[in-house]
Write a structure and sequence with these properties.
The complex is a heterodimer of chains A (about 180) and B (about 775). Chain A is α+β, with helices and mostly antiparallel strands and about 180 residues long. Chain A has 2 domains: about 5-95, Beta-grasp domain (Ubiquitin-like (UB roll), Roll), CATH 3.10.20; about 105-175, [2Fe-2S]-binding domain (DNA polymerase, domain 1, Orthogonal Bundle), CATH 1.10.150. Chain A has 6 helices and 5 strands; from the N terminus they run αββαβββαααα. A 5-stranded mixed sheet of chain A has the order 2-1-5-3-4, with helices on one face. In chain A, helix 3 crosses helix 6 (about 160-175). The longest helix of chain A is centred in the C-terminal third of the chain and has 15 residues, at about 160-175. In chain A, about 50% of the residues are buried. The mean pLDDT of chain A is about 95. Chain B has about 775 residues and is of the alpha+beta class. A 7-stranded mixed sheet of chain B has the order 3-7-1-15-12-13-14, sandwiched between helices. In chain B, helix 9 (about 325-335) packs parallel to helix 10, helix 10 (about 365-385) runs parallel beside helix 18 (about 720-735) and helix 14 (about 490-505) packs parallel to helix 15. The chains are: A alpha+beta (about 180), B alpha+beta (about 775). At the A-B interface, helix 3, helix 4, helix 5 and helix 6 of A face helix 1 and helix 17 of B. Bound molecules: FE2/S2 (inorganic) cluster (2 copies).
């Protein structure tokens, strides 16, 4: 596996490839606004370069879970990963859930709607993606498994109770 | 839940639900304007210092930098109450105070330029404690505030703003008392409300006298009005409200952030986005007020309170954003909880070299009550009275009066909460768990269980004014014009629901304008639980007005008296002969709309109510406190949306609420004036893995508020919690506490197991 130093040192690699929500992006490394600076986090690139602002940045320091996206199906904190590290990876953001053709929601999204599993909604994209990774791996979690999986997602409005109900409902509906 | 209604009281998806779950909701950080620059703030490393000189030359030369401003460059705009704080000053007053502002093409460039600014400081002594700050030789923060005491008065609440509770004759009251207790208590942990989205704004000038902002505050018109005065009464401000990523009151004190962006935009001639980082939110944005009280309470053996006197010291941090308003509401709210004929409660608002404290859910009342109730309960202990019974007898009842924030005497016209209290206590199992003062409910090994109760209420559900328009369109749709921002309560959806109910239109046919102070009539905003009653009243009146205009047209067309006409689903019926029906289009044609107008005037006669029951388990070996269970009780008249309501009730655990009793605090290093642990890892917050079971009892006794007989409660749900928890811990371990938060070290010290840290409340 390449270390970060390897990647940064081989910056003659002047482009990287990211697949985001099924669409492939060739991104140039550089300092211009549409390029990826080696110091840019994945969260920054998704939001500022690709315009996918559904991914939220709360703490920008790996502590709140707001920036959670799926990388090759696993939840990661996109504020803690440099974009150059994600070269060749497949990323799913909140915009990539559900069916883009018919607009149908992912069952988790639908359950969040049905249960009003949010208040301000700022934490919601990160929570939904964390929940999606959980259900993909463990389709029938117990309530405490759901809580454990979401323990890194900060929600200050205290929508937790409805979130847990929504995730449990989504698990039932996906079966 | 009522079956009387088609939508009201039913759980319906929020209007913005799809946007939220798909990531389409736009918060400030998600918005860009053409040619927009990014702002950064250079902040002071010293708690108190004069700026001898600033050299910005290097920063200005950096490519991509478009403005660098110091106190020498900015207009003499002043904010705070009374206006006393410059946007940038030649003096800094806390670690994190603004020294210079930078605007650049990217955030990275702005941050780099910030590093290039050189500042020479003359460091001054600092003061952090309210009592120390009032001493004659204390460092003075503002020339205008001798003794660091902020003058009373809050123009927004009128010329007689309540600034103390002075009623009857306390000396006589103390003579009549069987029990007199005296004590001090500090709720001075300055917890951070900590909205998930850090504060941010975009500002753009259009000419010298027109400023447009995109703001995450809870009231577009509040920003508009406040900025009008700060910017010298000659700038027309247009405020667009955007989705608010949590506020809990705090983003309503964002004038400084907004003016920082505005002055950068003015200097650069371009729109400027200024978003604080999480660390700036911790170190330099709104915290809860510090509250310390020294009080004396006289009571008869039967629990009749005869006299209350005390000094309430409020620590507002380095400047005063309008704390006098919070003092006013706190003074009003305390009268709702304790029935007493003789008062002499004297508040003082004091500045110290700390980060700003200001508006947080609970707005002064939570701060006062958390400090006051532990002293009151000393008297209840002496009289051996059950606190639930005491609150039941004391909480304001219809016909009882109180001085409210405007200094006027108001009489409650609301409901009696006795039944809510009884049902809440029953659901919680209070009678079985309550064993008397300082007695645990159960003991098992090193674990002790205790219960406590707290109470809060607010007559601000009817505060301030609201206006709304409702427009009916021929297609059978309705649009609500109201400048309400969505900050998590679901208020926008609930208002649309009211419109739909009055017009009997399917929910999807009712929409609402975005919050915008230009396109909408006056609206104070969603604060103080006022959305349901105050805003709702204006919206209902506007809808009824529009409906009447439509039916008047139909009456002419059909040649029927208007009283015979009804409308539902975009069709007008004649009641005695329902087969005679006209779609709205047939009445209006394609080239007409019906516009209704509604207005709400302040009405402080309907206090809301919240009681919180807490059960805790204390490990007397480790001092660890676990919150085992939370119960709550309220009466809202009529539930508008059960899921939104439940969310707000669960919110008692967040936003510097219940947990400020046990672990939430902003710790200051008094040697340097810095906030310690000002980040999401060190600042403790409750996670999904530690959720106590919650049980809410919500009654629906009709209020004389408006046609849906409802009032709101969202703002106050966290407020009774901390006092309930401190009581529960005291009962569990048999020792009283007077200094929040009750951390393990304090418990072990109280039990004589360790030498604890010095109580921070009083120390400088
Ligand atoms: S924004 Fe990435 S964890 Fe907080
Ligand atoms: S819904 Fe606001 S933080 Fe979770």
């Amino acid at each position: 596996m390449k270390t970060l130093a390897d990647i940064v040192n081989t910056v003659e690699v002047s482009t990287i490839t990211l697949t985001v929500n099924g669409r492939q992006y060739e991104l140039e490394i550089g300092g211009h606004p549409d390029e990826v600076d080696p110091a840019h986090t994945l969260a920054h690139t998704l939001r500022e370069t690709l315009g996918l602002t559904g991914t939220k940045v709360g703490c920008d320091g790996g502590a709140c879970g707001a920036c959670t996206v799926l990388m090759d199906g696993k939840p990661i904190l996109s504020c803690m990963m440099l974009t150059v590290e994600a070269d060749g990876k497949s990323i799913t953001t909140i915009e990539g859930l559900g069916d883009p053709l018919n607009g149908k929601l992912d069952p988790i999204q639908q359950a969040f709607v049905d249960n009003t599993a949010f208040q301000c909604g700022f934490c919601t994209p990160g929570i939904i993606l964390t929940a999606k990774a959980l259900l993909d791996e463990n389709p029938s979690p117990t309530e405490s498994e759901v809580k454990e999986a979401l323990a890194g997602n900060h929600c200050r409005c205290i929508s937790h109770y409805h979130v847990v109900e929504a995730v449990m409902a989504a698990a039932r509906n996906r079966r | 839940m009522s079956d009387e209604y088609r939508f009201i009281g039913k759980a319906t998806p929020r209007g913005d639900a799809l946007d939220i779950v798909t990531g389409r909701t736009k918060f400030v950080g998600d918005i860009k304007q053409y040619g927009m620059l990014y702002g950064k703030v250079l902040r002071s490393p010293h708690p108190h210092a004069n700026i001898r000189s600033i050299d910005t030359a290097k920063a200005k030369r950096l490519r991509g930098v478009e403005a660098v401003l110091t106190h020498e460059d900015v207009p003499n705009w002043r904010g705070g109450v009374p206006a006393h704080l410059r946007v940038l000053d030649s003096k800094v007053r806390f670690v994190g105070d603004a020294v210079a502002l930078i605007a650049a093409r990217t955030e990275e460039i702005a941050a780099e330029a910030r590093e290039l600014i050189e500042v020479d400081y003359e460091v001054l002594p600092a003061v952090y404690d309210v009592v120390e700050a009032m001493k004659p030789d204390a460092p003075r923060l503002h020339a205008a505030f001798p003794g660091n005491v902020v003058p009373p008065g809050f123009p927004w609440f009128g010329p007689h703003t309540l600034q103390e509770v002075v009623i009857g004759d306390v000396e006589k009251g103390f003579e009549e008392a069987d029990i007199v207790v005296e004590g001090a208590c500090a709720y001075e942990n300055f917890p951070n409300p900590l909205p998930p989205e850090p504060p941010g704004v975009i500002a753009a000038w259009e000419g010298a006298d027109a400023l447009t902002i995109w703001t995450a505050s809870q009231g577009t018109f509040t920003d508009r009005t406040v900025l009008y005065y700060i910017l010298g009464r000659k700038v027309n401000v247009r405020a667009h409200g955007v989705a608010v990523g949590g506020s809990y009151g705090s983003k309503n004190t964002a004038w400084l952030l907004i003016v920082q962006a505005a002055v950068l935009s003015l200097a650069s001639g371009k729109p400027v986005k200024l978003c604080y980082t999480k660390e700036e939110q911790f170190a330099a944005f709104t915290l809860r007020l510090g509250s310390r009280i020294q009080a004396r309470i006289g009571m008869k053996k039967d629990g009749t309170v005869t006299a209350i006197s005390g000094d309430w010291l409020v620590n507002t941090g380095y400047y005063c954003a309008g704390t006098q308003g919070q003092v006013a509401v706190g003074c009003g709210e305390i009268q709702l909880v304790v029935r007493c004929p003789n008062w002499n409660l004297k508040p003082k608002v004091v500045c110290t070299n700390r980060a700003p404290s200001g508006i947080v859910r609970g707005y002064g009342g939570q701060e006062l009550k958390c400090a006051f109730l532990p002293i009151l309960t000393m008297a209840l202990e002496k009289a051996d009275l059950d606190p639930v019974e005491f609150f039941k007898n004391n909480y304001v009842k219809p016909g009882d009066g109180y001085y409210w924030r405007d200094g006027e005497w108001w009489v409650s016209n609301g409901v009696d909460y006795t039944k809510a209290i009884e049902e809440g206590a029953k659901a919680f199992g209070w009678k079985e768990k309550w064993k008397g003062w300082l007695k645990p409910t159960a003991v098992s090994g090193t674990k002790r269980i205790g219960v406590g109760v707290g109470v809060h209420g607010n007559a601000d559900v009817g505060e301030d004014t609201s206006e709304a328009y409702v427009r009916l369109d021929p297609e059978g749709t309705a649009t609500l014009y109201s400048s309400i921002s969505e900050h998590g309560t679901g208020q926008r959806s609930s208002l649309c629901k009211m419109v739909a109910e009055v017009l009997q239109l399917p929910l999807e046919r009712v929409s609402m304008t975005p919050p915008d102070s230009l396109a909408n009539p006056y609206e104070f905003g969603t604060v103080g639980s006022r959305g349901t009653f105050a805003v709702g009243s204006a919206v209902i009146e506007a809808t009824e007005d529009a409906r009447r205009k439509l039916l008047e047209l139909a009456a002419q067309k059909l040649d029927r008296p208007i009283e015979d006409l009804e409308t539902a689903d975009g069709v007008i019926y004649v009641r005695p002969t329902p087969e005679i029906r006209l779609p709205w289009k047939a009445v209006m044609g394609f080239d007409r709309t019906c516009l209704g107008h509604g207005r709400f005037e302040p009405n402080f006669t309907m206090p809301n109510f919240m009681m919180v029951f807490a059960e805790v388990e204390v490990d007397v070996e480790t001092g660890q406190v676990a919150l085992l269970r939370v119960g709550s009780a309220t009466d809202v008249g009529q539930i508008i949306d059960p899921l939104n309501l439940e969310n707000q009730l669960n919110g008692s655990l967040g936003s510097a609420g219940i947990d400020s009793a046990i672990f939430e605090e902003t710790i200051l290093d008094r040697a340097t004036g810095r906030v310690m642990g000002g980040n999401m890892i060190d600042f403790k917050w409750r996670t999904f893995a530690e959720l106590p079971p919650m049980q809410h009892v919500v009654l629906e006794t009709p209020f004389p508020s408006h046609r849906f007989k409802a009032i709101g409660v969202g703002e106050i749900t966290p407020s009774p919690g901390p006092a309930a928890v401190i009581m529960a811990i005291s009962n569990a371990v048999g020792v009283r506490f007077y200094d929040y938060p009750i951390t393990p070290d304090k418990i072990l010290k109280a039990l004589g197991k360790v030498q604890g840290r010095k109580a921070r409340g009083g120390a400088a």
